[in-house]
Amino acid sequence: MIRPPSSHVPPPGNQPMFQSQSANKLSQQMQGLNLGPSSPQHPGMSNYTSHPDNQQMVPGPPPLNNQQFSSPHHKSQISTNVTYSTQPKATYPYLNNNPPGNVGIQQNMNNNRYSPSNTFPGQVTMSSPMSPQAQKGNQSHITNPVQAYSANPTSINSPNYSNGISNGHDDSKQPWNAGLQSYQSPHPLPNHSMPQSSSSHQGQVQYLYGAQNRNLQSQQNASASPLMNTGPPVQHYVSPNSDVTQSPVYSVMNNQSLPPVQPGYQYPSQPPNMPFPPNMSSPPTSPVSFSPGPQQYHGMPPNQPSPQYPSMTPQSPSNYPYGASNQSQQQPPKVDLDQMPNTVQVRQEDKNLRSGYYSTDVKGQCPPLVTTNFIVQDRGMCGPRFIRSTVYCLPNNPDVLKQTAIPFAITVSPLAAINDGEREPPACLYREQGPLRCKRCKAYVCSFMTFMEGGRCFQCAFCKVVTEVPQDYFCFLDGLGERTDKYHRPELCLGSYEFPATKEYCRKDELPNPPAYIFMIEVSNATFRNGLVPLFCENLKNILQCLQNDKKNDTSKLRVGFVTYNNVLHFYNLKKNLTQPHIMVLSDVHNAFVPLLDGFLVTLSEAEALVDCLMEHIPRLFINEPATEIILGPVIQVGLEALKNANCSGKLLVFHSTIPNADAPGKLPHREGQKLLGTDKQKIALSPQNDFYSKLAQDCVAAGCAVDLFCFPSAYVDVASISPLCKHTGGQMYKYTYFQSHIDGDRFLEDLERNITTTTAFDAVLRIRTSAGISPVFYYGNFYMSNATDIELSALDCHKAITVEFAYDDKLPENETVFIQAALLYTTCTGERRIRVHNLAIATSVNMSDMFRCCELDTIINFFAKQALKQLLDHSPQQLKNNIINRTVKILTCYRKHCATSSVSGQLILPDTLKLLPLYINCVLKSDALAGGPDMSLDDRSFAMLAVNSMDVKSTAVYFYPNLIPLHEIDPDAESVPSLVRCSIEKLHDNGVYLLENGIYMFLWIGQAVSPKWLQDVFGVQSTNLVDKQKTSLPELNTPLSKKIRQIIEDIEEGRQWYMRLTVMVQGDKLEVVFRQFLVEDRGVDGSPSYVDFLCHLHREISKNL
After folding, report:
1. Taking the model in full, what pTM does it have?
2. Can you give the residue ranges of the Sec23/Sec24 trunk domain (predicted)?
């Protein structure tokens, strides 16, 4: 249970609602009392107060002392958003997570991470006054950007914020201007010799790594350059008439601290006479500035190897992914990694500011990040767990969206898992006529509909057509035009709910039967040699008991069946009147069929004894089976035929280890495609050899049959050719390379248990409806579409998501709201037919800056990754990378031209919501799914592509940027987990232990100098040489530290789709090369660029377009 901050919990008691006309009065009272929780704020921000005549934000008075400077130690107050409701106070049972005593006024400071430019009806935003504080003391260490946002900032001179790299100067000698920052005033101050400097737009962050750009120096009219450490301190001021909030430009000396982070980020480029790439192994010897200049540069240069690992040699420039660099150039000083925007800082800030309750009743607000723990309060729009959009404020003009190059898409997870403290979407009242829908567009009734004429009809929010309300659904309207039963019907007050479906929504107009599970096990020499068959038979009884004891669903009518196969098929009759199972062998695999109808699919309760008997006999029957030729196509065909005969949907759980090489339908010859990876012909190796399994998958979708493949290969099995069985049916693939039951057995059994016990929707159809002006154009994910509108999935669970891209049909009117409805028709595991509906409203604006302010980066990356996977089979690798980079450059260039106000050409300016876009794009380009490593097999590459294509936003966020946890900092007595560290080798210490996981892989890296006491408490040994690296789990020791770490690993595993194998390694092991591939901020083993190199490359490309 999440414990929200006290400022987020509504006060107890039943207090009356505030009236909307009291908003301005209360706003002024709170402004005078300085109410609102204390929270860190950027230094140098202007003060704002609420004007008594309107709800606009107006500048407050300037500070009294114009010589004051902001300090990163200053703690200020952030805006307190007060929401006033004009609805009458009512008691209604369908508002999720509504705490007792909810009142009309709440402090929802976590609901507006990026406040919209316009004030929404019923909401007043006020800010408490803030005065900048003087910064004390000089600074000799390079500041970590996390400090600028820290609620309890530490001293800048603390070694915790040092990058550990000498800058080539005597740090004990402080320059006269060390630690001074540029102060930003809401009003210009008179009698200053420095001219006004233009800065960035609100919501952008600027940084200069290296020194100030020469263009900036020419604008400052100073007697001496700031790079010479002489002359008066430079101050920058902004215009009071500007309609945007300005932020100062900072210069960073080689021996001077970096000022705190500002909203937006800037990076310098390289002067024409300065060599590139930067030298990563030598300290700076002289201050340098970066300027794009006229230099011609046609590719990303390779990074230099880290000094800790001299064996890591750079790749030849001719083979560099983004082109060759000039080797004759010398290396300028290294750029400090701590000056770059980083994921750890951004995620931690969001957790600090937005944990707690999140209400969905405000259009245009960005939700908390997927890595933040929050509780959703459904107030008419669905929560972000079900639908996330790339943008939450759209431009009215489609040309503006095209100009920005930002995609407009949503990622839908209809069955997403909810958090503790939240409720599942409630079921609406059953109607014999079915759910109430619009007579034209067939949209389901929702909270966006407008009832009129006393409640006799309603106007559809999607197509604007008026539909008459049936007599059994009629209800009078109150004085505000709302139905009096609004809060007693989930579909009228919530954003997510379910309708019971009638026969018209079922196949053949008949209510469905409960689904069935068919277990299909390969019995061959390979599966007995690796121990799969004995392990499966010994543990299936316990797994089926977990399914039978499901407390949430009644599984008494759920049926199971069993098939074993090698080069022939074996069926088992489990009819309840038999004393032992009967086996039937089908050798004609070219015309496969199910030889028995009665007794093949049985319920768990009536055949429990027979199933136990069968599991005891299977290992004895086939232990000496010499078969090496294996079939697969006929196995799927008979499973499909069995579900058709039973008139039900279901799953085929296939346990397979060998490429289908027997003379039967679906035979796949071995092909050599490993050498094609990374070339223009790789699409041949990543595409299926034929369309047999694709057509078979389409037949499965038509019957509601999903296929889950558990692969145990010890050689090539051609995952690319058999994966359509999972991709088109909505199934899942599990891959255990070189499986050994004593090593990987626990992981396999955990995956199997999760598969059959996870809540699943069978025989599902998803349709996306939108309001007039936009329409869906492209769909991405693992599904099948027989027409242009319906997304068909034989099975769907909480881990799978579909991404939908939209396009404009016409220009949208001003102040128009865009509505999106996702409706999922499915069958539950108990055989009920339901319709789950999710509704979302997106605001619009005429300003491009509003769109950049309301971007959701994690969803954008999810879209880019899935779009790239779809294009991977049509484009060469280099062309695909260039397309992604060019679009990234276009996004940032558009912001630089049209939204940023800084006139300094040598700055890279990023919007605050997209400041991690370069980092994430580089991670996508380096990922296994899109690029793969030089040692990655063809099957592993195909598996990674299939896995990413079905991921939701939360899964892709951790997949592309893994979590890195310093386990040596764990306090056994503390409830919290240590803060994550950045995925860079520079952040690893010899005396540390780190856990890295990305949802598929998990590594435990142990430094050579780790404390012997730590090893004794966790591994039971006192030396790294004695650590058993063959184990895939930690030993269960009775020590507080061991229990704490094992609990952390268990908590991580519970939230992932696949149960991850723990790989233990010690610093210097051969496996460390694999581990370093997941340190995504560093240069890859294959020569892929580091984060800093890629950022410089983007800066150069953007500068060419300015």
Report:
1. 0.74
2. 512-756
